[in-house]
Design a protein that fits this description.
single chain, mainly alpha, 8 helices, 56% helix, globular
Length: 174
Amino acid sequence: MAAHPRVEQLRFARSEFVRALYGVSDEEARRRFLPMNSISWIVGHLANQEYRYWLLRAQGQDPLPHARELAAYGKPATTPPLDLAWDTWRQVRDLVDPYLDLLTNETLETRYLIDGQPHDETVGTMIQRVTYHYWFHTGESQAIRQLLGHANLPEFVGDFTDEAAYRPETAHHS
C-alpha cells in the first residue's frame, strides 16, 4: 500500500527543497545575510525537526544525537558544513521514512505524549507543519540564492502529475 497522501505531500515538499538547492556550494551555503540563517543551517534545521518529531517523540529513539544540535530552533545560529548538513538530513530521512510509511488516518488523529502529557497537536497537524516548514524554508533559500547572485532558479513547484497529484485519503483507514 502506498504511503498516506499527507506523507506523500511531505515527501514532495522534501524533493522540491532538494531541487531548489541543487548546485549550491559549501561556501555559499555557509554565508549569512543577516538576519536570515545560512542555507546549511536550514538543511540541518529541517533534519532536526523531522528527527524530533518522528524519532524522538514518535518512537523514543535517539540514534543520531548530533541531529538534535546541528541547527536546533532557539539555539545560536550556526553555519555547519553543507556536506554535514545534507548527510544528516539524508540519514534522518532514511531513519524516519519507515515510520511515516505506517501512518494511517487513525494514527494521524492521535497525539504523542511529551513528558507524560498529550502534545497540543495531532500527528496529522505535525505532518502538515513539517510540510509547510519545508515550503517556508524553500522560499527563504531561494531568496538567499538570489542574494548570492544565482540565476535560473526554479520558478514553480515541480511535477505534480507524477509526484503530488491529489489522492483520496479514504483508502488509508485502519
